[in-house]
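Pilot study result, target chain (587 residues):
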Amino acid sequence: MNLQSEVESILKKVGSSLGYGEDFVVSFSNRPELSDFQSNSCFAISKRHSKKPLELATEIVNNIPQNTKYEFSAENPGFINIRIKNGYLSKKAQELLEDNLVGVEKNKKRKKVLMDYGGANVAKELHVGHLRSPIIGEALNRLYKLFGDEVIADAHLGDWGLQMGLTIAQLQEEGVLDYYFKGAGKEPIITLEMLNIAYPKASKRKNFDEEFKQKASEITLYIQQKKEPYYSAYKKIREVSVKEIEKNYNELNANFDLFLGESDAEAYIEKTIKIFEDKKLAYESEGALIVDVAKDGENMPSDKLDENGQPYLLNPMPPVILKKQNGADVYATTDIATILMRNETIKDLDEIIYVVDGRQSSHFERVFRACKMAGISPAEQELLHVGFGTMNGKDGKPFKTREGTTVKLADVVNLLIEKASEKLRSNGVKPSRELALKIGLGAMRFGDLSNTVTKDYVFDLDKFLSFEGKTGPYIQYTVARINSIMAKTNCQGGEIKIESDEERKILISLLKLIGAYQVCYKENSLNTLCSASYDLASAFSTFYNNHHILNEKKVERKKSYLSLCELVKKALVQALYVLAIDIPDRM
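Predicted structure:
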């Protein structure tokens, strides 16, 4: 349902009939007390026809046929203001109430999309840096599905890199893996606690122990070659980690169709490299196998020289490294092989979308170019990196503990529950873990998604958890309030009749919310939907405060009010679902 386009069509038709063309654009009014929509197009059009803007606007308005939908007026110095008539607004409200998607129209041409988000690393405990990918990715997944696209979500685990070699090297030295390496004792019970100690210890050690680092690199290569007993030890560690990762993602409301990892693309690496070699795109450089992906105008030498006497490069674009000197696969190789695997195992993918930290933009640009050059990704397929900004503390720096260490995901969840419980108790509600988690997680998700996806933002849980203002709990509370209203009456809703300014404001806010979905879909950012949801909830709050819904004496008005409440609830529930925010029964 797009009334904005409907009004635009009316103006274009009249403008064309009068010889002024169809360059009319309509937007929601920035003076809602005067009109619902406005058009500023007469200013530009009047210059081409040597007329005053107000004169042209008046002529357009005077030639619009009388109708039962809209009131048009020309206003100084040349605006066209449009107000939706109450009768037509009432009709549209009733249609929205009966529409399963509350005005959102599915795409005429639906896409098949693979979304890659999550990106947890096996053998590492999830931390605050892993939050944004599943938060943003899950919301985009649900948004695309709302528009009718087929979406396949893959967590794409990091399970094939140096962290695996480091962890095994550490556990081997500690004797934990003697069963595999010495055939001694029983098969060990690997726990998450073991991994949480072993990996950080090994990661620090590699910075000063070159021999240990070399050993870990060799083990990483052995794993990639499926050499025993390294590969069996690796599989055991992976199994333990993936179970915990799945649990973490479920708690975050992130749902995946696939839990594949870098290791699953291993079978495609040899084929990937052969494709580049057969097409003479790969060549050796200093013992490594590389692919040059630079375009004209990139890697251009400048007049300035570096410390080695070599010229600095303008618009640098490094090559893609397919194989290291020691023959091990690298990050780019695995990502390219993963795209090959996806296109061979999942047919007819229109898009592959990566929801990954924006600091990886150069990596993905090079990987995507290489895939297009080699034909691994068809020309018509879109490869898209949705790069997000960092989550920072109140000091503006990446969010960390007071000790300067990275905050664990488990600690974030506990913090959400603790803060939400405090808020509920202050409101006279006895908190349960489930209730507090719904509110805390909703607060965090809304706080994150309210920001343009590419921007850094401040993780301020006290602000996010406010029951007032533009926050997740405010939207959740609005739905809970409507549920409370419905529970207190036996009266059934009836036909919606829009009469008051407060009711009109609800409908205009709802129309903006419908339009917000399309904006978010185009921009791959949910901030517009968050703002529009808040505006609708705020409009409802004003209506609720100014109208005694349950005490309304006129039966038809009361029924209309109740149906309007149901419409607002339906719209907010849909928006919160897309944002992957659960709705608590009480607050």
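One observation from the pilot: The longest strand covers residues 351-357. A full batch analysis is planned for the follow-on phase.
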